[in-house]
Amino acid sequence: MSAGVVLASGLAACGGSSDGGSGGSGGSGDITMGFAQVGAESGWRTANTKSIQASAKDAGIKLKFSDAQQKQENQIKAIRSYIQQKVDVIAFSPVVETGWDTVLQEAKRAKIPVILTDRAVDSSDKSLYKTFLGSDFVLEGNKAGQWVVDNADANDVNKDGKINVVEIQGTTGAAPAIDRKKGFEDKISADPKIKVVASQTGDFTRDGGKKVMEAFLKSQKDIDVVFAHNDDEGLGAIEAIEAAGKKPGVDIKIVTIDAVKDGMTALSEGKINYIVECNPLLGPQLMDLAKQVVAGEDVPARVETKEGEFDQEQAKAALPNRQY
Ligand code: AHR
Fold first, then answer.
1. Which atom of ligand 1 is nearest to the CA of 278?
2. 177 bridge partner residues
3. Residue spans of alpha helices (H) in 32-96
4. Which of 42, 92, 255 has most ligand 1 atoms within 8 Å of its beta carbon, as the pocket-test mutant?
5. Chunked mean pLDDT (size 10), the chain, 324 residues
C-alpha cells in the first residue's frame, strides 16, 4: 500500500479486518463493506463521507474506509486490499471514469459485489458492478445552462449583446466534470449570444477555482458569467473576483452546483446567483443496496438521487435547516 492511500476503519468500534467470506453471508449484522472514497476535495465530499460513515453505523455494517486523495492509483490499491481482506461488498466513487475494468474483474472473480456510488465508470461490461447510485450530472449541467438562457438579459452584465461565460471544470476525466460540461453546453447552444470563452479545470477545489479565476481575469476581458462545476470552485472564484476589485454576483454572475452550506451562504448574500443541488447524503440508500446485493437480491441497475435548485430567496429559506 502506498503512503498516499489512507486506509482506516470508518468506525472505531467496528475496526479490524472482515471475517466475511467471499460472496458474503446476507445478515446485515455481519456485513463488511470496503469503501474507496475519492478524497476530501470539497464540502460536498466531506458531507458524503459523514453520511456513509453514519449510515453504516446505523445499519450495523462494518465499514473499512479509504481516502484516495483524488488519485486513481490509490483507489485501485484500496479496492485490491478489500479483495484480499475478503470484504462482503465493495463500494466506491470512481475519481475518473475510465481504467477500472481490470480491478473490477478481480473483484468479480473473487465473487465480491461492487456498488458504484456518486460517480459512474465508463465500461462496456455492465456485469462488473451491481448498481450505480448517484445524481444525473448531465441534468445538473442542463439546469445551470438553462438558468443562463432564462436570465439572458440580466446575465449580459457588460450590456454588449454577448454573454461571455468562463467555465471552471471539475477534475479532468471525472464523470461530473464530463457530464456537467455537456449538459451546460446542450442548453446554452439554444442562444447564439451565449458562448463559453474559456474553460479550465479547478479540480473541484476552492484553491483550484481561485487560481483558474485569477488567470481568467487576466486573459479575458468582459466576463459576464462564471459556471463553476461545484460550490468550492465558485467560492474560490469569488475570492479572485473580490481581489480584482469587482463584486461577485453583480459585476460577474456566478452559477454553481452542489448547494453545500458555504455555497448557500454566498448565494443568500448575493455573491453567487444560482445553485443547482447535488445531494451528497447517499449513505442510507447505499447501505440498503449493500444489504440487498449481499443477500443475493436483484437491485435496479441505476438508482438516481433526487435534487432541486436554489435562487437567493430559496437559499435564505433553506439555510436554517441545511444539514451540510
Ligand atoms: O462527484 C460529485 C462532485 O464531487 C461534487 O459536485 C463535488 O463537489 C465533488 O468534489
1. 6
2. none
3. 43-59, 72-84
4. 42
5. 35 29 46 98 98 97 98 98 98 98 98 98 97 98 98 98 98 98 98 98 98 98 97 98 98 98 98 98 97 97 94 97 92
SS3 285: helix
Instruction: Give the C-alpha separation, 217 to 61, whole Å.
Output: 49
Binding site membership of 204 for ligand 1 (Cβ less than 6 Å): yes
Burial class (CB within 10 angstroms; exposed 0-12, middle 13-18, buried 19+) of 251? middle
Length of the chain (residues): 324
- pLDDT of the residue at 306: 85
Does the beta carbon of 197 lie inside 6 Å of ligand 1?
no
3-state SS track over 116-185: EECCCCCCCCHHHCCEEEECCHHHHHHHHHHHHHHCHHHHCCCCCCCEEEEEEECCCCCHHHHHHHHHHH
